[in-house]
Amino acid sequence: MIPNLTKNKFSRFSFLLQPKYIFGLLVAVAALIAIKQYNHGSYNNYSIFKYTFWHLIESKSLYAHYPDEYWDRNHYGPVFALFIAPFALLPDYLGMLLWNVCSVLVFAFGIKSLPLSNKVKAIIALICANELITALLSFQFNIFLTGAILIAFSYTLKNKNGIATFPIISCTMIKLYGIVGLAFFFFTQKKIQFILGLIFWAVVLFVVPMLLSSPKFIIDTYVEWFNTLVYKNSSNISLDSYQDISFMGMVRRTLGDPTIPNTPFLLGGVLLFGATYLRIKQFQFLEFRLLLLASTLIFTVIFSSGSESPTYIIAFTGVAIWFMRKSQHSKWEIALLIFAILLTSLSPTDLFPKAARVFIRNHALKALPCVIIWFTIIYEMLTKDFNPKSVTVCEN
């Protein structure tokens, strides 16, 4: 009798577990965070973003140091100036508020587009909530990027390649991470259309910034951007950096050897990731496709020396999708999710003592649960028969 009463009691509130309520709450949180950060003067990243547009208009280097405007440097491609333009034209307080809100809306639309039930979409958003807040506090583009990858995946499955290829190309020309959207190429039935979509958007997004400056300036800017990224990648590899929270960084810091190269890790990761494509007969099954999406999102972060704490909104979305792709879970999977929530998502917060936070950061242990989950995903993708009779929460 008691279990039934308990079930009925909680079922009264089950209607709250709907994407529209969860997403609405996250949008409100995004706005409040923007207001808080503006009042505290903590919006350096937004300043970098904003001046990217104005520097493009003035044909000034997008990657030079401008200490009177912000600290650090811009590391995004010239296409980013187009995306930030509507916000840069507004007063800071309004621009950054709308930036955070739009970031969450794109992220929410990405989750909403997934071929999953509404309840599952809501739970995915909740699992990602703390990482989302971490990214919102520093006005990260990674929120947009995560939503864009999800949209590319969903619309590739729908064979709507004109839409699917736009986020892939635009994000690639902004932060390079967007190129991982090409991982979904084999899921479309219209591959020629997909390729043409990539070419079309690449040409459009290469040319349009020239209308705000000049062809020569944009070409020179891409060369400068490449050189900047090469230098940044080398500078990320440091035992005391706030970046390099990656598989390689974790090994380097644990062994205390900053000379350990990225190449062996990247080569091994790419080979394992690529090996899953050998299982062609499994491509048709939704669970396999969702695991590839989760693998792609996590891979993007754990094999990047540029990964920092706010970057993990990308990887943790992959973790959430991995866990929520089905309704029945093993004790190992449940333990991994709890481990990830504690060590990856919550370890940078005040729930952990300062000494523990410092130890975890110094050893890049935020990456550890995601690394284990990624290898678990790869093992499953290489060994499991994704029969459509298997029980999942996915909806075709």
Characterization of the model:
The chain has 396 residues and is mainly α. Helices cover 65% and strands 0% of the residues. It is built from 17 helices and no strands. The protein has helices spanning 2-11, 19-39, 44-57, 80-88, 92-112, 118-137, 142-157, 161-175, 191-207, 215-236, 247-255, 263-275, 286-302, 312-324, 331-346, 354-362, 368-383. α5 packs antiparallel against α6 and α13 (286-302) packs antiparallel against α14. The radius of gyration is 21 Å and the shape is globular. The two termini are 36 Å apart. Mean pLDDT is 93; it is low at 1-10 and 391-396.
How is this fold's topology laid out?
Blueprint: H1 2-11, H2 19-39, H3 44-57, H4 80-88, H5 92-112, H6 118-137, H7 142-157, H8 161-175, H9 191-207, H10 215-236, H11 247-255, H12 263-275, H13 286-302, H14 312-324, H15 331-346, H16 354-362, H17 368-383
Structure, briefly:
The protein has helices at residues 2-11, 19-39, 44-57, 80-88, 92-112, 118-137, 142-157, 161-175, 191-207, 215-236, 247-255, 263-275, 286-302, 312-324, 331-346, 354-362, 368-383. It is mainly α and 396 residues long.
Which range best describes the helical content: under 10%, 10-25%, 25-40%, 40-55%, 55-70% or over 70%?
A: 55-70%
What profile does the largest beta sheet have? Answer: none
Please give the alpha-carbon distance between the first and last residues: 36 Å
Which spans of ≥5 residues are poorly predicted at pLDDT below 50?
Answer: 1-10, 391-396
The SSE order reads HHHHHHHHHHHHHHHHH
Give the structural class.
mainly alpha
Evaluate the radius of gyration: 21 Å
**In what range is the share of β-strand residues?**
under 5%
Instruction: Name the shape in a single word.
Output: globular
Q: How large is the count of helical segments? A: 17
Kindly state the number of beta strands.
0
Mean of residue pLDDT values: 93
